[in-house]
Amino acid sequence: MKELFKQLLKIEERINYLLQIKDFSNWGNLDGFKITCENLKQNIYEQSKEKLAGELRKLDESISFLEERAEEHLTPMERVRIVRSIQRFSLKDILENVYEDYTELGGQEDANVDPAMICAKATITRRIKNKPITASVMVIGQETGHGEEFRNGGSCKPQGNEKALRYMKVAETEGIPIHFYIFTPGSYPVEEGSGAAQQIARNIYAMTKLRVPMISMISEGGSGGAEAIGLTDYRIMASHGYYSVISPEGAAAIEGKIREGAKVPKELIEVCADRLKLTAKDNLERKTIDRIIYEPPLGARRDDFAFFAKIRAEMLRATDKVVLSTKSFSALRTYEIRRKKHKPANEEELQLELPWDLNKEEIKRLLSLRSKKYHAMGKNGFSGQAEQEEGVYNLAKVKTEKVYYTLRYDVMKNHKRQVRKVMSDVSGEGSVMLRRITEPINALMDMWGKKKKEKPQRLIAYTATNGNSETPAQRVDPLELTDTYTSPLANSDKTVSCPNAEKRGCKDLWIPDLYGEFAGVCETCGHHFPLEHQWYLENVFDSGSIRHFNTDITSGNPLNYTGFTERLRSAQIKTGNRSGNMTFHAKINGIQIIVSMLYSDFRNGTVGSAEGEKFAQACALAKRKKRPFLAYIHTTGGIRIQEGTLGVTQMPKCTMAVREYIDSGGLYLVVYDNNSYAGPVASFLGCSPYQFAIRSSRVGFAGPRVIRETTGDDIPPDYHSARNALKRGHIQGIWDRRDFRRNLHKALQTMGSPSLYYRQ
């Protein structure tokens, strides 16, 4: 009877699992089967063994039939529910069943630095020539737990991602591969400390050039939380998992324009889950992952030991594949892996004779392949082609420019710098020797009172001129705003009150003055009213210096998201541009720079495949020509949800481009304005060493509503203010709009390496 009772409990567990997947609807009479189970439990000792066994057999057959039907017709949202089930396997289950041994780092259980992120030094045994060989790996991933509240559902705080970065660097020092496991609905949206967005950006930036093989497996990959440990050389995804730019519920709230506190319709959530193309099959088709691990029907659970054996074999094969791609002699071993490409990995198969440690040349190839992988992400998400890649002439021009600028600025200029350094050293030594010779003579002359009086040294103050000035009255400051454009907002003949009027006593502002002479700034308190992006184009940069490039790259609708093509066309007609990112050449007081501008008029400055491609191409151009690169963020609402993971992969792609530009000696400046949130700030913007904000702008990871719904806490009105971002160390300064041009010029003159073209 005891065994029959266990069977009954197991059947009840399966019914509850199906109910959860079907969102507790009475699909297939599940409620009736649940009631039958309850009755059998209550009357279990009143029935004979034979009768109870017969009842259990009928139940088992009925539930098995329903499980088969459910698996055949799983919707995307049902896959999301599978991933969120308390019965789903977690990282701790993987550590226990995939690896021979492990030591958790950074604390354990609820005493962990952040229990939602686990880092562990683990060992895994490989079979080579029928001999077991133990290898060390670093395992890093989110832990959802099985009902453990302190795990926060795998939603990491900044300190959790900071811990992950710390142990990534430990693995790099030790030269061992890293296995990442992604189990997160998204990062915990707080700005305190290292900040959610800024810390994710640091993680992604570091991962672009980590000198060890990195493999990741995705079960639940939610937005920036997934990308914090997702930039890897090989990305595997569980067949019943999901990888998405946003949760279906979040997408439904945005698409349905649901007011805060109102219930999001279930039907809309189902529709958005389908539109987001978040399944493993969808992601493989769009090349945002490399391989799928197939799970048993309705997903693997915490006691599915056969599936853990499959994970083990797949992670070993993937690590071998990445390492092998770096080897000079690998033809036969590569063929062996390719031969098994479409077969499921078998735990019992022999591993290749392949050491996982890499030498300098192999590390160089590893980083090169990683760069190519992420630069190619999202290429199928837009139309048009970058000018640098279009036609034989432009390709030849790019190669010629690389040679020319390398010779001019890296070779010849460096040679001049070295000669100047030697001459300076020789001159310094000579002056010391001359001083030693003349000191006795000067001492005698001083005794006889014949030493000449030294003239006081004059300090020469720099005064900017227009090049033709002859008198102080004619002098012009070239760093004043050019004042060639007045906002159309100045045409209203009325007054407006400053938001700080009650606190600071600001007087009402006459609009023609406010948006004209005052540049949208309150004269009393310095509050900055928003201005359109055209004001910056015309007034900040040298007059006539702007030359746009890659204007043919056009935002698209790669997921065929319902209604989005019309919305894109409307934005294109409204702005006259084809994407939400303007890239152009410009000058600041004669210094040539490359600029990328995300602006509010085009889909609220959101980033999709086209915007990411234009940003990466601008980085490449700035790198080639040794010019400073400015990312001016007029506004960004984050990653464009209608492009799904093709949008979210722009985070690692653009960060890769930024890292390569900075490593080449470039100066990367970011200036935030208005509202700058989410994915871009948590990646290619937040990784800049020089970030500034225009006064009155707001910078952060998530808006007040998302924070409130996620954490349950109300945040103060100034939570995302530029001043608070400065106090937290997320930005390096606050700029007044009226001093934008002057401050930008100062940054160009005082920041960056000697590699820039105008450096002496």
SSE topology:
Elements (H helix, E strand, L loop, with lengths): L1 H20 L8 H13 L6 H24 L3 H9 L6 H8 L2 E5 L11 E12 L2 E12 L15 H17 L3 E7 L11 H12 L6 E9 H5 L6 E11 L3 H8 L10 H10 L4 H6 L5 E3 L11 H20 L6 H9 L20 H16 L6 E2 L7 H57 L47 E2 L4 H4 L4 E2 H4 L18 H7 L7 E2 L5 E2 L8 H12 L5 E8 L2 E8 L10 H17 L3 E5 L10 H5 L1 H14 L4 E5 L2 E3 L12 E5 L3 E3 L3 H8 L10 H6 L5 E3 L4 H11 L10
Parallel strand pairs: 3-4, 4-5, 5-6, 6-7, 14-15, 15-16, 16-18, 17-19, 18-20
Antiparallel strand pairs: 1-2, 2-3, 8-12, 9-10, 11-13, 13-14
Description:
There is one protein chain. The protein has 760 residues and is of the alpha/beta class. It has 5 domains: 2-73; 87-375, 2-enoyl-CoA Hydratase, Chain A, domain 1 (Alpha-Beta Complex), CATH 3.90.226; 391-423; 488-530, no CATH class; 532-750, 2-enoyl-CoA Hydratase, Chain A, domain 1. 42% of the residues lie in helices and 14% in strands. The protein contains 25 helices and 20 strands. The strands form 5 sheets. A 7-stranded mixed beta sheet has the order 1-2-3-4-5-6-7. A hairpin with a 2-residue loop joins strand 13 (581-588) and strand 14. The longest helix is centred in the middle third of the chain and has 57 residues, at 391-447. The radius of gyration is 31 Å and the shape is globular. It starts with a helix and ends in a 10-residue tail after the last helix. Mean pLDDT is 87; it is low at 457-469.
